[in-house]
Predict the structure.
Amino acid sequence: MKRLRAVILSGLFIAMEIVFTRLLSVAPTDTMRLSLGFLPVAMAGATLGPVWGAAVGAIADAMGATLVARAPFHPGITLCALLAGAAYGLFLHRRKVTVPRVFLVALAVDASLEVGLKAVWLSNLFGIPYLAVLPSRLAQAAVMLPLQTACICIAWRYLGPYIERNVIPSLGTVKK
């Protein structure tokens, strides 16, 4: 029963990520997208842990790329989504969600994955030189880092008590 609840909750997070990333986003260029798609992945990692967070990130990216594609599916970009979900889970699951902790995980995800690794995959996907992709990825990270920090903290402030009281105990996990 606990596993079924985790699967159902993951499905909700996956659906939210697809809507936030694919339908409710602003994409000024092919290599830059501003969205709230990070929020369901971060909430999945914080609530369910790094394995489920990674699964939510990867499945949502693969399904979103298949269902509502602006560009062809690329497994490297899905790998970035998987690693982001795992990072949110490692930093936030069973830990007190604080502004410095959220800022550090968002910085780690943005610097290593969004600017570093995803720029390589986008360069490969679109045939654009890496150094030409980098400025748009840096601009995206500069905008998204404070937005991610604020949104995750606000979401957890209002949803966290409910999740800690009602969702986490039904999943059999204990918050530290």
Summary: The chain has one domain: 2-171. The chain has six helices and two strands.
